[in-house]
From TrEMBL:
Protein name: ABC transporter domain-containing protein
SUPFAM superfamilies, A to Z: MOP-like, P-loop containing nucleoside triphosphate hydrolases
SMART domains: AAA (SM00382)
InterPro entries the UniProt entry points to: AAA+_ATPase, ABC_transporter-like_ATP-bd, ABC_transpr_FbpC, ABC_transpr_MalK/UgpC-like, Mo/tungstate-bd_C_term_dom, NA-bd_OB-fold, OB_MalK-like, P-loop_NTPase
Keywords: ATP-binding, Cell membrane, Membrane, Nucleotide-binding, Transport
Gene Ontology CC terms: ATP-binding cassette (ABC) transporter complex, substrate-binding subunit-containing
PANTHER family found in the cross-reference section: ABC TRANSPORTER ATP-BINDING PROTEIN (PTHR43875:SF14), MALTODEXTRIN IMPORT ATP-BINDING PROTEIN MSMX (PTHR43875)
Nucleus in keyword set: no
Amino acid sequence: MAKITLNNIAHSYDGGNSYALKAMSHEWNDGGAYALLGPSGCGKTTLLNIISGLLQPSEGQLLFDDVDVSSLPTEQRNIAQVFQFPVLYDTMTVADNLAFPLRNRRGPDKLSAAEIDHRVQQAISMLGLEALAGRKARGLSADDKQKISLGRGLVRTDVNAILFDEPLTVIDPHLKWQLRTQLKQIHRQFGHTMIYVTHDQTEALTFADKVVVMLAGEVVQMGTPQELFDAPQHTFVGKFIGSPGMNVLPCELAGKEAVIDDRRIALAREYPTLNGVIELGIRPEFVRLVNSGQGLPVQIVSVEDVGRHRIVRAQLNKHRLDIIVPAHQPVPSEPGVEFDSDRINIYQNSQLVGWEHQL
Ligand code: ATP
């Protein structure tokens, strides 16, 4: 396994000034589980392909354990890849498909037949493929084929990294949950460096120790799921992560209060004078519904019961506000809302105003 360093990596497909990936420098730890998360077109696959060697970056260097691999072809980077759709040999059995990446090794890396068999059996039991081991891949369901593809990515223990590009797209929703959990367990057990591309926040948050959130060719935040929830560094991260995402409301600051349309909201601390667009971010989990006459008055637009809790969609003057209400709590007909001051984030031009700005 390897530490992966991106040193000012940038990429333009047309060689001009339009960058699909803007210059970025990051260090990803040996043995870490990383998810690249972001909307379609934000540059996730471009970055993954640069790491795998399918794409040569227009600028910067890529290092594996401090060795520059930028100009090495994919075959020499010693990585395993799992793609969105299964890549299998239809005429081979499931076991032979799994053994293929191991049998292919030459010279000092050549493995004995017993070792190959051991690893194949291990992959078969990790993924629950026992009943299919002797069957030809042709004719298996899309789910099973993709499980075998995952197995092919996981059989090699000596790789620098395992790269996954939206690997659960074709998988049935129930099985998705199971495979995500299995991948996490496999990571804990074997400690591979794993990089997992997805646009699905649930996949990213359950799989990764560190989630790399991308927007328009840039990394807007890299953090643990908890950090992304508690302190989104950019309003985009707050809105993109969470269900529903963070409420973002334009405001002004006055001493230890935020002012939204002449309504005052207590803050946990005072901020220095800020310029530009100032916004208040609060997650729906930290907005409380209170009785009429208390807090800020809101109009209820809809109430969605999602079992564990309800999601109340409300209007605070002209601003939309989502509130999470515990299942047992009644929703008043003309409610007010209160914000948990400790959970309010303040943003300047979409960027979180950090504690370094504390007076
Ligand atoms: P998706 O989830 O849809 O795959 P993504 O986040 O992986 O999106 P990329 O596929 O890396 O994003 O695309 C980033 C940008 O680069 C997009 O604007 C895309 O149109 C552009 N792009 C991707 N591949 C090429 C290519 N081969 N030639 C030109 N432009 C490309």
